[in-house]
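Hi there, hope your week has been kind to you so far. Do you reckon you could talk me through the fold, stretch by stretch? I've dropped the whole record in just underneath, so have a look:
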Amino acid sequence: MTDARPILFDRDGKLITITLNRPASLNAIDLPLALALHEAIEAAADAAGSGARVLLLRGAGGSFCGGGDVAAMHAHRDDMPGFIGRIIDAFHLGVMALARLPIPVIAGVHGAVAGGGFSLALAADLVVATRSTRFVVAYPQLGAPADGGLSFRLAQRLGAKQGLAALTLHGRMSAEQALASGLINRVVDAERADDEALQWARGLVALPPQSVNELKGLVAAQSLVALEEGLAREKAAFLRCAATADFAARVEAFVNKTGA
C-alpha cells in the first residue's frame, strides 16, 4: 500500500532523506504537506546535532512537485485568501528552515517542478535534475505572483531584468536551460539520478563537517534577512491577487479543466 503520509522522513547514518509523498497529485503542496514538510526539516535540524551531515530532498512518483494544490484552494473558495494564507505561512516556515539548516541540502528533482515546487527546488543548496525535468513558473496562469521565495531567488540569481522575464514571458525552461542559467548544478540521465544524488551526498559527508557547515552558514548568511523580507512581500502580494475575482475564476477554470 502507498504510505498515506504527505512527507516521508528517513535517516541512514549521516544522510537524511525527506520525500514529498503525494504522487497521485504530483506532490502538490496543500496544508498538511506544508505543515509536515516544516516539521520534517526541523527534525533534520535536530538530527544535525547528533551527527547527520546532509539532507536529500526528493519527490515520490513521476514528478518532484507540481506546485500548489489548486483543487484544495477551490474547495475553500468561500475563504480562499484566508486558506491560501495558512498554506503560505506553513510553506514559508519550511523554506526559512531549509535556509537556516546547518547542514547542506541537495534536491534531486524530476518531472514537473512547477510553482511552489520550483521555489522549493531553489531553496536547496544544490540541485541535480534529470534531463526531462521541466521547470515552470506557473503562477501568472493562475493570476498570482509567486511564493516560497521564487521571485527572490530568480532576481538574485538572474538579475532583475532576466528574473522578471523568467517569472512572466519565459516562465518555462528545460533542465539544460536551468543549468545554463546557473539555477541548478547538474543534469543527469533519469536512470542515474538517484545514484548521482547519493554520490554527491556521500561526497559531502566525506568532507570535514565543521568546514561544510561553516561554509553553508557563510553563504546563507548573505541572504537570510533579505529572503525573510522577500517571503513576507510574496505573501502579501499573493493574498492581494487571491482576493480578486480574476484569480477565483482562474482557479475555477483550472479545476474544471483538469477535473481535480
